[in-house]
Amino acid sequence: MKFRKFFWTLSGDDKNVIAKCNKSTRSRFTGIGVLVAVIFTLCFVSCFLAFTGLLQNLLIGIVIGLFFAWMITNIYLFLLYTLSKTGFPYIPNKTARFISVSIRLVFIAFISIIVSKPIESLIFYKPLAQDIQIFKHEKIKRYTQITNEYLDKEIKEYKRLLTGSKDEFYLRLIEDRERKKLTSTIAMERLVSKSNYYIQGMIILNKKYPISWFITVFILILFIIPTYLKIFIHKDSVFYKTKHYVESHLVRYEYVLFKERYNEIFNSKYGLDIHYDENYSDAPFNTKRKDNKRELLKEDDLLDSLYA
C-alpha cells in the first residue's frame, strides 16, 4: 500500500483523496505515477547525456542531469495538475478552455521532443560515431586545403620577389610559411580530435536517420498518456467529488478567517465597527455579482440639493 501511495504522490494529486476512490480510479493514478517515474528517469538520462556530451565531464553531467530532470519533472507535474477539472464555481468558456489545454499539450510535446533527442543519439551511437569521424575527416581536409592554398599564394609571391635576389629575409618567410602549413594542420587535427561534435551529431541524426523520429513519437506518447488519464476522469467521480469538497471547504474556511481578521483590525486599532463588503453573492468564488439596489437620483435632484 505504501508503494502505491508513493506513485499516487508522483501523480501530482492528494494521495489521501485518491485513497478514498474506487479500485479503478486508484489504479489509474497508480499508472500515472508509474509513468511520471519513467518520465523522470528519461529526463535524467537525457540531461545526463546532453550535459556530459557538451561539457565532457561525468560528475558535472550527473549533478546537472539530476537538477534538470527534477526541474523538468516538476514543470510536467504542474502542467498535469492544471489539467484537473476545477470544482469551484466559474463562468464556462469552451473556447478559452480548448486554447488553454492545447497550449499545455503543445508545451508537454515540446518537452518530450527535447528529452527524446539525446536518448536517440545514444541508441544510434555506433553509426553516429562513424558519421562524426567522417565529418571530422572532411573538416580537417577542407581546413588543410584552404590553409595550404592561402599559404601557397604567399610562398609563390615571396619566391617571385626572391628571383634575382639573395635576400635571406624572403627565404626565412618562405621557410616560415612551409612550417606554418604543417603546424596549422597538426593543431587543427588535435583540436578536432578533442571535440565530440555533440550538436553536429544531433543534426546528422535528424537528417540521416529519420527512423529516430519513431522514438520521438514513442516518448511523446509516454508524456501524453498521463494527461489523457487525468483529463478523462469523469467530473462526477468520487475523486473529483472528494477533491472539490476538500478544496471548497478550505477556501471557505480561510475566507471566514480573513473576514474575521479584517473586522478585528478595524475594531482593535481604530475603534470602528466596519465589516468586509461583499459584492458577490457566491463569495469567495465571485462569479455572481449582487444586483445594485441603490436608487440613483437625477441631475436635477443634485441641483435642487445644492441650491435649496
TrEMBL record:
Transmembrane segments: 29-52, 58-83, 95-115, 211-233
Pfam family, one: DUF4407
InterPro entries in the cross-refs: DUF4407 (IPR025519)
Key words, A-Z: Membrane, Transmembrane, Transmembrane helix
The protein, known as: DUF4407 domain-containing protein
Native organism: Mesoflavibacter profundi
Lineage summary: Bacteria, Pseudomonadati, Bacteroidota, Flavobacteriia, Flavobacteriales
